[in-house]
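Continuing the batch. This is chain 6 of the set; chains 1 through 5 are on the previous pages. Same settings as before, nothing changed between runs. Recording input and output for traceability.
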Amino acid sequence: MAEQATRTHKSFEGKMSEETREHLRAARDEFHKSMEGIIPPGLMEHRQKARREMLLALRTILDASLERMDEKKKK
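Output for chain 6:
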């Protein structure tokens, strides 16, 4: 699995210790590694393609909605 980029989002800063946050990150990474051994690779590839198609469908819906808004402004 590719190494994840360092996140700049600091929503938990000051709410839990850095040690706790680091432990949670490590637990998440280990969980993801364990799932890779259980889930067939084809399923993950299919999931990724299906997610992309859903996002493209959402984009189409948003574009159509924006076009209707623009048409109403022109009238």
